Amino acid sequence: MDFKDWHWQKKHSLKDISNLGLNFISTNDTLVTPYLLSLFQSDKIVKQFVETSKTDSIGLEDPLFEKKFTKSKGLIHRYPDRALLVVTNKCFANCRFCFRKNNWNSYDGFSLKDTIEYLNNHKEIREVLISGGDPLTFEDESLVRLIKAIKSIKHIAFIRLATRALSVLPYRITDSLLEAIKPYKPIWFSIHVNHIDEITKDFIEASNKIIDSGFPIVSQTVLLRGINNDAQTLKELFCKLVELRIKPYYLFGCDRAVGNERFRVKIEEALNIMESLRNNISGLCVPFFAFDVDDGGKVVIEPNRIVSKQGNAYTLRNFEGKKYIYEDTQY
Ligand code: SF4
Question: Could you tell me which residue ranges the Radical SAM core domain spans (predicted)?
Answer without folding.
Answer: 77-284
